[in-house]
Write a structure and sequence with these properties.
Blueprint lengths: L6 E6 L1 H5 L8 H16 L3 E6 L7 H6 L4 H25 L4 E5 L8 E2 L2 H9 L3 E5 L9 H11 L4 E6 L4 E2 L11 E2 L1 E3 H7 L6 H9 L4 E5 L5 H6 L6 E4 L11
Parallel strand pairs: 1-2, 1-6, 2-5, 3-4, 3-5, 6-10, 9-11
Antiparallel strand pairs: 7-8, 10-11
Helix pairs in contact: 2-4, 6-8, 7-8
Length: 247
């Protein structure tokens, strides 16, 4: 049986890298992610990654506390670069070839993001880590993930979380919340489900790009999704069913 997708965009939150530490970067989390992605690459799947920076700095929280919103967002983008470099180090120690492509130019540590170059990296089997969000304030890394996925022609966004899919309410707060195996983009927007922000969902909807929301803390889940197992929740077109979505 072949893999379901050949080119994927993995969306990681900054908080995911903090692990049990709650702040900063937990090397054991990076090591585990690296091991999973090594398995994925062995399947011949091309992987791009967009990573957040919330484990270091959250722009909207700083703005709420009185900081200029644009300044706070730029600081958040720089936090994603720190995470990207840490992830790059872990992936390369696992034997993967990587490139960090930053939307804010900083040639001493990362390549500038150039769409055609990023696609070429993916075609050559390199893991591409997209840093600094979109390069613009007022946009989240969710939006950056949707944008980069469409730009590099990824077939799916794999949205890593701490729970096993999308629920009718926060399962960590409401134990009786129902897991929803498949939703349309419109359902996510109308019900206010916090899968990704509304801009990101709209980009995916306009481009028929499915989103699979899954539990990153369960080892092997990325590989299971790629092999067609019904892991997590899928957001896609109304005609889609199961993990495949439509594209």
């Amino acid at each position: 049986m072949g893999v379901l997708y050949r080119r994927v965009l993995l969306k990681l939150s900054g908080e995911a890298l903090a692990g049990a530490l709650g702040y900063g970067i937990d090397p054991s989390v990076i090591q585990r992610i690296a091991e999973e992605l090594r398995e994925v690459q062995a399947l011949g799947v091309q992987v791009g990654i967009v990573i957040g920076g919330g484990n270091i700095f959250r722009g909207f929280q700083a703005a709420a506390a009185g900081m200029d919103r644009a300044t706070a967002d730029y600081m958040g983008m720089l936090a994603t670069v720190l995470n990207a470099l840490a992830l790059q180090d872990g992936l390369e120690k696992a034997g993967l070839i990587t490139r960090v492509c930053s939307a804010i130019e900083m040639p001493a540590v990362a390549e500038p993001y150039i769409r055609r170059r990023a696609i070429r990296h993916l075609e050559k089997g390199r893991v591409v880590i997209f840093a600094a969000g979109t390069g613009n304030p007022f946009f989240t890394t969710d939006t950056a993930a949707a944008l980069r996925a469409v730009e590099v022609e990824a077939e799916v966004i794999l949205k890593a979380t701490r729970v096993d899919g999308v629920y009718s309410a926060d399962p960590l707060l409401e134990p009786g919340a129902e897991r929803l195996a498949h939703l349309t983009y419109i359902e996510v927007l109308n019900r206010g489900l916090k899968v990704m922000d509304t801009t990101a969902i709209s980009i995916c909807m306009d481009n028929h790009l499915p989103i699979v929301v899954f539990n990153l803390t369960q080892p092997g889940n990325i590989r299971r999704i790629l092999m067609g197992e019904a892991i997590g929740s899928t957001v896609g077109d109304p005609v889609a069913s199961g993990q495949g979505g439509s594209r």
